[in-house]
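Per reviewer request, we include the raw input and output of the structure prediction for the construct analysed in the revised manuscript.
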Amino acid sequence: MKHPAVDSFKCKNCGWLIVSNGAGSNHRNHCPNCLHSKHVDNRPGDRAAGCGALMEPIGIWARSDGEWAIIHRCTHCGAMSSNRIAADDNPMKLMALALKPFAMDYFDRDRLSSMLETMEDQGNLF
């Protein structure tokens, strides 16, 4: 059974006061400031997880409808979950999370630059 998160609470990671309105849905499942969550569900909305540790935002993915979702990993047990972004999420934190792989050495920057130039020349950048 899904339970709407309507009570205000403080983020366990950054201390931000989190209120339910502004999220764009009835389910507040992460902090709009730092994007961290708390491990409370085994399945979305069931509140059956006994862990209760912080869920760290580790990535972003785009669903088939184009909507973004945050990938969280539990800092205690390693469980992973995906949560829709909320209307009031910090856009700079979302972008930083989405671009995080590009700041690491996973990608050859010269090759990326060349690919972007080719895409731009072909009109396929956006």
